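Exercise: predict the fold of this chain.
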Amino acid sequence: MVALIAELDRHGRALADAAAAAGEQAPVPTCPGWDVRALLAHTGMVHRWATAHVRYGPDAPQGDPAERYPAPDDGILAWFRAGHADLVAALQAAPDDLDAMTFLANAGPPRHFWARRQAHETTIHHADAAAATGEIPDVDPAFALDGIGELLEGFYGRRSGRLRADPPITIHVAPSDCDAGWRVEIGPDSRTVIRDATGPADCTLRGSSPDLYRYLWNRRPAGPVEVVGDERAAAVWRECATVRWS
């Protein structure tokens, strides 16, 4: 828990610094159609929405967060920094038995869920802000491995989403710096994610945990990710594995 909040704090500060270096009007190549201002507006809104759930639990305000937490016309960077700091403070002060909603499979206790979700949300958007300056930020390997697990088992453990394949395909995610791994079976109507599964796969993705983390989130890896087997399977991931705000 402490480590997750520390990563949230570190990457949020670095996101703001990268945004300041790039400038509000700089395009974000990893988020087509967005500039840095749009990135700050989105992430700042998400931080405030998460803070409300952490601070107020079942009594958190309802309704469209984009309408409740709009970015200001001026001073968006200071607004972002303030919202990020408030989220970090709320998580630090929250009790271990926090009562709040969660929305992913295998979410765990709510305080852990919100720390984890916002740490990875912020880290990936730090990568977006850094991309506007042509940089790729470092990610701690253990934290990246946790993020791969959250993405595959959490987001893709749900029934919804565009990640489908007909005929079915199987992808093996194989970090080169640890013994963990995932088997992702993608069919026309469903997905199955199995941790540490063995057996044949149409495609194996192999690289360091930080590089696989970025690759699976469709961000640019710092080092090589080896695609072994059917390139079509990797293409399905790149084209269809998207996580959208809704």
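Check your answer against the key: The CA atoms of residues 33 and 126 lie 17 Å apart.
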